[in-house]
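Please, structure for the following, as tokens.
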Amino acid sequence: MIEIKSLKLRLGTKLIFNDFNFKAEKGEKIGIIGGEGVGKTTLLDVISGREFPDSGKINISGSLININQNVYTNLSEMGVAAMTKAERFKSMMTKILSDEKNEDRILLLDEPTKNLDNDETEWLIKLLNDAKNLTVTVASNDRYFLKKVCNRTVTLGESDVDEIILPTVEIKDDSEEVLIVEDLRKIVDGETVFKKVSFSVEAGQKIALVGKNKIGKTKLLKALGAGIEVQGEIKFSDSVKIAYMPRVFSSAAAKSELEKLCESDANFLILDNATACLDLLTIVEFESALKNFCGTVIFADSDHEFIQAIANRIIDLTPDGTVDRISNYEEFLSNETVKAQIFEKYKK
């Protein structure tokens, strides 16, 4: 159980919490949401004792476990240093939750799905839902994860965000092919990253590029948007004006790239994990703008709700080409034919 009463905390000149109250009962799973800088991570730090408040009372009843997706300190086991962040996170979570003797466990999670693909996210959802007595407080922008795991959410800070307006373009011919990709292959240090990638894109389509981590989605988007060298042919129509938003690793960089995107006159957007460093309020506004954008979009993202809201076509990048379907994301994931096709391509 966690109980916070009349919390006050100032960091520098900024007042983060003032008379803040919070309570999590045993077995509750609570999501912490809000804009950038409102104190989501700071709240977890206060609960875990990493940050000391100016005043207020904090009562913790149970064994406290604090996991940040971006910070790992236990690298003692053989091979762990060579693991990806997702692999290390899964290893740590499995060990923690396998200890069923301690029923009074309190788990603090900071952006737990940030480095996970869809299958890994579903694994984590099941793991947490099966741990009935586990108390969880999670700071996250992942609406799908929060909806599947949390009993309730607590919003910190103000709900206002600057309006995002994307350029609008008129599509003269909905059937116009604006991109043709033929037999792309990318090899890095002698290893094939992807191969047999062929597809065409019609104006106005909004395509989500999905698949497991480390399968080359970022490199494929870089080939399309930034012109990195690949084998094969990429041909855009003369009517295309591209805006490419690369993957970044800080909120400041993400907002800067988003501003450039929205100020462009592009009719073809290529987005590489655009939501990864945006706060939830900005993601929602960006999502709304993209839904109304009448140009063409190809994007990769780990935000399930974002993909579901925007994409009308899904391309799964596998080790042996692609699985391509006109559908929304949830229909794609549940389609048995699609599952069989993906399974076969991973067997080769």
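The longest helix spans residues 85-97. The mean pLDDT is 86.
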